[in-house]
Amino acid sequence: MVDFRSTELVMEEQELKKYLQEYKNGQKPWDVKNHVGLVKSMMHFIGSTDSELRDKLIYSTFFHLAIDNQLEHELLSELLDYCLSDDMLFKGIGENGTDTVFTRAFSSLVIAVILYKDNKDDFLSRDAVYKTKDHLIHYINTENDLRGFVPVKGWAHSIAHVADAFDELILNKKMEQKDLFDMLPTLWEKILVSDSVYVHGEDERMITPILAMLEKGLDLVEIEHLLKGIPAELKRRKEQIEEENYWFLEANCKTFLKSFYVKISSREELISLRRDIELCLSEL
Which among 244, 223, 94 has a CA at the least distance from the CA of 158? Predict the structure, then answer.
């Protein structure tokens, strides 16, 4: 069993960066003998404010190692459990504008990769998948830092990343149709935010898991019901929030609806959704 919480590392930050650069460039092979320690070091620095290290090296390397079957199922299972912890997915939860968002956001990306791998190889227990569902729902409900690209420090993109994790979760064979009813309202609520405006493609990433739900068997009526309720919901919230925040909310709704419309424009079986979106936009 790997103690991911231990501070004992194979490599310090700059040493790890140099090694991963050389590995990525083909100058060094992957150190199979020390690979568990390397993964532990990678996770320790996955919240680094160095965007090259965090995104282009640590996450990219982890993704390719997992996809290329270089990480054992047992290690991935233990890593999933660690990613769901207070040290990772919930590190600094509730904060806004601080650097802890990078740890949370990239933990959710690692979770997405592990779930993707489980969808291929079926190694996670049912309990582990359901624990992941509960933690992701709690996380997205409590994530307040909605920044996309952060100057100098690169991508945070917490909502886009967790949408990717939800997409893989929805596709998981251990998830049942009834579980979709837990996830849909949570995802929908994060579209209707009024604290800031999504400007980095978050709307498109949120649409993907919603469409995955329909593929999984969610009744179209559930989405139609939510669409029809948007004008009344915005009217209700207009009375409760500051005027500027209302315009943030309306902008987020309109962007989402337009992206949703384009995404389903060629799908004849979703023509009723397109009509509902048209009606909704006409009322806003």
Answer: 94
All residues at 6 or more sequence positions from 91 whose CB lies less than 8 Å from its CB, including other chains: 47, 100, 103, 104, 107
Round to whole Å and give the CA distance between 281 and 36.
51
**Burial label, 120 (beta-carbon count in 10 A; 0-12, 13-18, 19+):** exposed
For residue range 200-253, list pLDDT tens digits in order.
Answer: 999 999 999 999 999 999 999 999 999 999 999 999 999 999 999 999 999 999
> How far apart are alpha carbons 34 and 217 in whole angstroms?
44
pLDDT tens digit sequence for 108-122: 999 999 999 999 999
Residue recorded with tokens 């939860």: 93
Q: Give burial (CB, 10 Å; 0-12/13-18/19+) of 200.
A: middle
Q: Can you tell me whether residue 219 is helix, strand or coil? A: coil
Question: Which distant-in-sequence residues (6+ apart) come within 8 Å of 178 by Cβ?
Answer: none
Give phi and psi for 154, each to the nearest 5.
Answer: 85, -160
Nearest to 232 by CA among 248, 253, 211, 217: 253
Residue 159 and residue 143: Cα distance in Å, rounded?
Answer: 8
Beta carbons of 200 and 245 less than 8 angstroms apart: no
| Contacts of residue 134, Cβ cutoff 8 Å, sequence gap at least 6 | none
